[in-house]
Amino acid sequence: MINSAAKTNGNLIRVLLSYWWSSASLQAWALTCALIICTGLIVLLTMQLNSWQVGFYTNLQQLSYPGFTTSLTQFIILSLVLVAASGSQTHFKMMLQIRWRQWITDKYISLWLHNQTYFRMSVHPDPVDNPDQRIGEDINLFVTHSLELATGFLRQIISLTVFAAVLWHLSGEITVSLAGTEFILPGYLVLAALIYSACGTWITVQAGHPLMRQSNVQQSNEADFRYCLIRLQEYGECVALYKGDQQEKVNLMQHLARIVATYLSIIKTTRTITWISSIYSQLSIVFAFLIASPRYFNGELLLGQLFEISGAYWYVHSALSYLIDSFGKIAQWQAVTDRLREFYTQLAASHRETKPRPAVFTSNKYKTVAMKNLTVLSPAGQILINNLTLELKPGESILITGPSGCGKTTLLKTLSGIWPFFAGKITLPPAEKMLFLPQKPYLPIGSLRKAILYPHSLTNVPNLTLKELLTICGLCSLQQHLDREADWSRLLSMGELQRLSIARAILHQPEWLFLDETTSCIDTRMEQAMYRTLKEKLPQTAFISIGHRGTLKAYHRWILHLEETGLWHCSDQLSAAGTGTWFANYS
Ligand SMILES: Nc1ncnc2c1ncn2[C@@H]1O[C@H](COP(=O)(O)OP(=O)(O)OP(=O)(O)O)[C@@H](O)[C@H]1O
């Protein structure tokens, strides 16, 4: 168990960091190096500006005007280089951000779309929430925060090394007497900064750790709220017809209330962290002066040196307080990383489940659609179809009937390879010879031409062919709109959408056509016309239809009737005996 978790974590890290080992690695490393160089340069310039104070204040103290103007010139030059380095750092960081995000998003989308994983995950007993948000927003936050934290960390490490050395040098030695014994402490200012920051960090971590969980919950709350708004927009017509405005408002307000409640707890934790870090920062301003003042008042330090110590102390203290200052960002980074890990774990599990199963054979070798001892289950484990054995030869058609909810659609989903809950053996012809028309037609947003050609993107289909197709499917009025971009699934009626999917089937000429109540929203006369057209245009095609209307029997040789109990019964309309011939040739 621990091994598997460690393996998943290892794979996740490989996916997240694969940009640096990808085909675009040259670009990745070039941007990273440029970012590191700019960050290092900024710290070195900051150190120069800190040391510059010594000369500047000394010149002021000694009333030296030429020294004062030289100091100002130095300041202008250092500042100009610092501005250029800061601008370049921002440029390289943002470039790396968008390229890295693009890379990870591409990886996640590929994993999500591979082998219909998006569907399989939706029927998982415990599906992860809002995959859209994980891909769209969490990856973006992960990349942004990772780069912010990494560059911040790098800056603080260089800063700590450089300024700790400066501070150590400036500290000199102090003598401390403890229980009558005198100790000489070198670099006591560095030691003081270390102790001070360690105490502050410990207190902040204790007070702020709930923030990570709260951020995670808030990400989910925000995604749920947005999903409800999108659904309302999508089903606006239905909600309006039901006059469900009040119900929708209550639902949306409940989601908003969850966001507010979590936000209130985030406010509480953030307030505590802010109090701690403010006290800590305010004290640190005087702390450096306080512990360096004995040497100043002893005449061992000039005013400029006192300011230099204070500056160096401030940088060392800032570097050591990095965790405290970035606690909110670290908490959010941890939350999005957890959400990406959770999503990746389910993606990986889904991929393991969908590796070609020994129970399903798809190859050119198979000329038939056959099932042997096929048992189809619901996600809850309830048997929908029990021990089904049958074989369908090329060009033969079968009508699947049965009461609503008995498992007709699930049988087609099993044959299409997207339903994972089954036992038994299935053999199928190659995927490109089959076409599945779902009950609810799907049309991509775009031109009508793209909608008819979906899921292929054949570009060489002449307009005339497409117009003829629309005519024979009773959609003449759409002929003029082949290139009109729209959300066609909203504009067309259900019957029109179903006829458009029949046009799609005729265009693609499959050898095996699976129709899941594809004509359920069309009147009987038109339904008959559609089936006659299909038979005429696709004479060699085998039809596997689901339907409730008895009129469909005329277009199919076989009738498979499913019962609610999982039992089934198959009959041959051509055979005088009616049943039994189905299995004669099955091997
Ligand atoms: N994704 C899913 N998650 C949970 N249960 C599901 C899922 N898909 C189908 N089911 C259940 O499986 C059973 C069979 O559903 P299916 O859609 O196959 O029925 P059907 O015979 O095609 O019904 P209808 O004639 O009404 O279209 C139903 O009880 C349904 O609730």
From TrEMBL:
Keyword annotations of the record: ATP-binding, Membrane, Nucleotide-binding, Transmembrane, Transmembrane helix, Transport
Superkingdom of this protein's organism: Bacteria
Record-linked InterPro entries: AAA+_ATPase (IPR003593), ABC1_TM_dom (IPR011527), ABC1_TM_sf (IPR036640), ABC_transporter-like_ATP-bd (IPR003439), ABC_transporter_sub-D (IPR050835), P-loop_NTPase (IPR027417)
GO molecular function: ABC-type transporter activity; ATP binding; ATP hydrolysis activity
Membrane topology qualifier: Multi-pass membrane protein
Name this polypeptide is given: Vitamin B12 transport ATP-binding protein BacA
All residue ranges annotated as the ABC transporter domain in the record: 369-587
PROSITE patterns: ABC_TM1F, ABC_TRANSPORTER_2
Gene3D superfamilies xrefs: ABC transporter type 1, transmembrane domain (1.20.1560.10), P-loop containing nucleotide triphosphate hydrolases (3.40.50.300)
Localization per Swiss-Prot or TrEMBL: Cell membrane
A cellular component annotation (GO) from this entry: plasma membrane
Transmembrane segments: 20-45, 65-85, 153-171, 183-205, 273-292
Coarse class of the protein's main subcellular location: membrane
Keyword set includes Membrane: yes
UniProt domain ABC transmembrane type-1: residue ranges: 30-332
